[in-house]
Amino acid sequence: MNLDFSQIVPYIPFILEGIWVTLQFVLVSILLGFLLGTVLALFKISNIKLLKWPADFYTSIFRGTPLILQLAIIYLATPQLTGYDISPFLSAVLAFGLNSSAYVSEIIRAGISAVDRGQTEAAIALGIPYRPMMKDIILPQAMKNILPALMNEFITLTKESALVSTIGYVDLMRRAQITSSRLYSYFEPLMFVAIIYWLMVMVLTLLGGWVERRMKESD
Q1: In what residue span(s) does the ABC transmembrane type-1 domain sit (predicted)?
Q2: Higher pLDDT residue, 20 or 130?
Q3: Which has the least CB within 10 A, 26, 41, 51, 186?
């Protein structure tokens, strides 16, 4: 075994630039997934079948097919179907955001269902409209219950972000592959990037724990 980590030193700035490149689309994807997931969750708990059925079908599609397949369809099939040459960044945001929203919607739906039904009944009895009731009473309580599951989803999204290297998006993983091809050495660049991913996940884990403790202290 002949390992030489010193050979990747000239490429460290190039690899480190991939952190922000990765975080850019991950953060936008998380925001899209959370916003769309919240809307889908509200549709799922609705008594209106015209809203509930499409939301359930959407979730089954994105949870029932591989993320890498969804990414490939968006990136490769969009130009064929629409004539629009979609960028790797937009493809990544759409694939990860739409996929995440399916999981987030189930997390939020479960959190809302876990809130004491008496809260809803009391709000209805007081004549509080549906939108303020959900925004000011139900969702804040549900968020405290679902925060750990949401953080796990965001951590998973960060780890799976390496899949975008398959469509040429120059993220952390892609930069490790480029470095490996130039050095004809794979272990050192990949291990260096693995440490960076691990650190990113640890930061998210610690942040999630801190937010969870703060929310418990505010009770």
Answers
A1: 19-208
A2: 20
A3: 186
